[in-house]
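seq as requested:
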Amino acid sequence: MRRRSCDLAIVGGGITGAWCLYFAAQKFPAWRIILLERSRIAGGATAHSAGVFFAVGRSDRERHLAGRSAVHYAAVRNRLTLESSEAPAYWIADSTALPALRKMSVGFTVECCQGDLEGATDSLGLRVVSDAAETLFYGGTSISMEPTAVATALIRHSALSSSASACEGVGVQQIDATAGAIDLVLSDGSVLTAGRIIVAVGPWIVNGPIANGPIESVASERDIRIKKVVALHIDQAPVSRSPAIFLYAHDAYLMPIPRRKQWLFSFRSEEWDVKVEGQGLTISQLDRNLARSILGQYFPDLVDHCFGGRVFCDAYTADLEPVVCSRDNDRLIVVGAGGGAGFRLAPGLAEEAVLRLV
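struct tokens:
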């Protein structure tokens, strides 16, 4: 049996695994670090992500993670010359929602726009129809990036600047912890012995190839479930400085993507316990009907422009708090369960995971 060894193995080549590699290579430049991806780098949940970053959070911890992520995304956008676009952020919400909006925002202040909502067409660049009880608020900037490009750039930079490396097409079939190290049994029949391991496998944390032993215990303790995530594309080019518009009551948002000459409409699906791979992960007629009904309440001119979209799934904990769990005296760390915010919180989660390494 072929064997190789490393100081740190990172399992999962999506956006979170890429950030883990980036931070670990900086913190431990002398370590031999190997990232393992069973398929293609950034080809799983990351490839289907909307790629939208906005510094908001539902809880104190999520706001902390969003704030750290804002710092790191700003740094790598310049350092790695990542393509991105920015949009001023607006909310449509009940007139009493201002305290809640201000609480969830990180690094910016939310203010109330003057005038009624239907008079905001010039500000938004879209015709708005809404209930008179709702108000238009503004504050902050939403950023759109290509998740696969970000993950690939992080991994490439880490491999060039340290002894780190990334291997595609190598799955982990089993994890065996011993007294002094951890053996990873790989899909090619070889064994990788690692001093430490970070598992960042996204929705594959449940029913994935290594969803047993310590991984299974994390999923069970945090009551992790898998939920469908859907975003439709709207085949209409945004105008210059088109804003991102968040529909607070519906947990939905409309994001301009100028480089694709379209808008992205993300909304909350309630299809739970879906399989990570298979025929169920398609945009259903139920998804389209729900999206069209929400759009019709606010932006009726966009309803007939829905064309295609992205669909996948993510892991959610019972309390909606993302996971960074240690096992075996911090030699094994599980990170993920972003609850649909994996791209947005990935830098903060990865930083937290790497700081636990001993």
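DSSP finds nine helices and 17 strands in the chain.
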